[in-house]
Design brief:
- By secondary structure, the chain is of the alpha/beta class.
- The chain has eleven helices and 13 strands.
- Helix content is about 30%, strand content about 25%.
- The structure holds NADP nicotinamide-adenine-dinucleotide phosphate.
- NADP nicotinamide-adenine-dinucleotide phosphate (NAP) binds near residues 30, 142, 148, 185 and 312.
């Protein structure tokens, strides 16, 4: 599958009226890159080839479109690119003004590039869908992953009491990020140890998702980000109705479990948002949020970076540095 990815040359893109042309300094790898590479996302996001992979970046603005008002050449920005216009594994990329935010000045480009997609995902799951409040009990599945490592920190900053699942080697890391209860998913069953949670963020799907319903209090909320979205989560996309029916069928069991346990079940299909990213940027600048980076690869080794992410064992983020 990795053979589908090639390193080569394409023309430098020209910015439209609302675009920033950005000299990419770093871009991070996300499991969505693997889903796009395999074609799994095609029914929802029908990309045309050749396609430059890469959903988030940090870099310098080198030119701006005629209608851009918030940024100027020379600004250092970070962004989660629009879903229909990705392409950050490159020397130059186009970024809509709406999805960009100023890079926190205390972070390197590698650090900043590690945040947009996972940071927005964690924030939107906890606040937009989960409405997590101070004092609530929150379970974050896979606290050592890209999303989990940010979600722990954001949940703590909201005042929640945080439990998380990791393999033992990552216990010290997640405690340092703020997790108060740490469960080794290889030797312990989280659903035998936890109960009365207000909110669960599921990143795993399958059996982990099914067991997550059990640990919620009546009236609690479960948000999953794993696997196929629900038809509701993609209602703003032009998804053909047979695909929508398929998505509905895929999640019948989840909605049944939600009814049985008297909880709310939602799928989050994260969306790029420059304003929310600016808020995360402020937290990064203040030090209330910090990046967790596992490995950095040069752009020429993008296939190795994808393979490492695909191992599912990365602790925090895998980042690509652009020379
Ligand atoms: N819907 C959306 O908008 C959206 C957005 C972002 C991400 N996602 C999805 O969310 C998932 C997570 O993304 P990510 O970037 O956080 O992935 P990731 O960084 O690649 O996750 C790797 C981490 O998962 C941990 N892990 C693996 N199996 C586990 C288990 N059974 N229990 C607990 N931890 C486990 C590993 O820990 P150990 O090495 O310690 O085992 C590793 O630290 C992916 O499926 C991704 O596609 C969806």
């Amino acid at each position: 599958m990795n053979d589908a990815v090639k390193v080569g040359f394409l023309p430098q893109p020209n910015p439209g009226p609302h675009d920033l042309l950005v000299r990419v300094r770093a871009a991070s790898v996300n499991p969505v890159d693997l889903a796009i590479r395999s074609g799994r996302l095609k029914p929802i996001l029908p990309y045309k080839l050749p396609l430059i992979l890469g959903s988030d970046l940090s870099g310098e603005v080198v030119a701006v479109g005629s209608a851009v008002t918030r940024f100027k050449p020379g600004d250092e920005i970070f962004a989660r690119l629009d879903k229909d216009r990705i392409g950050s594994f490159a020397e130059y990329a186009l970024v809509s003004e709406d999805v960009a935010a100023l890079k926190p000045s205390n972070l390197t480009h590698v650090e900043a590039a590690s945040i947009p997609l996972v940071g927005l995902t964690a924030w939107q799951a906890l606040t937009d869908l989960g409405h997590v409040k101070a004092g609530q009990k929150v379970l974050i599945q896979a606290g050592a992953g890209g999303v989990g490592s940010v979600a722990i920190q954001l949940a703590r900053s909201l005042g929640a009491e945080v439990a998380t699942t990791v393999s033992q080697r990552n216990e010290a890391l997640v405690r340092d990020l703020g997790a108060q209860t740490v469960i080794d998913y290889r030797s312990q069953q989280f659903d035998e140890l936890l109960s009365e949670q207000d909110f669960v963020l599921d990143t795993q799907g399958g059996d982990v998702l099914a067991r997550s319903f059990k640990v919620l209090r009546r009236g609690g909320t479960l948000v999953t980000i794993n696997g196929a979205p629900t038809s509701e989560a993609v209602r703003d996309y032009k998804v053909a109705w047979p695909v929508q029916l398929g998505l509905t069928a895929l999640h019948l069991k989840d909605f049944r479990l939600a009814r049985q346990h008297h909880v709310t079940f939602k799928y989050l299909f994260m969306r790029p948002d420059g304003q929310q990213l600016g808020m995360l940027g402020k937290m990064l600048q203040e030090g209330t949020l910090r990046p967790v980076i596992d490995r950095v690869f040069p752009l020429d080794d993008v296939r190795q970076a994808l393979a490492y992410s695909e191992s599912g064992r990365a602790t925090g983020k895998v980042v690509i540095k652009v020379p």
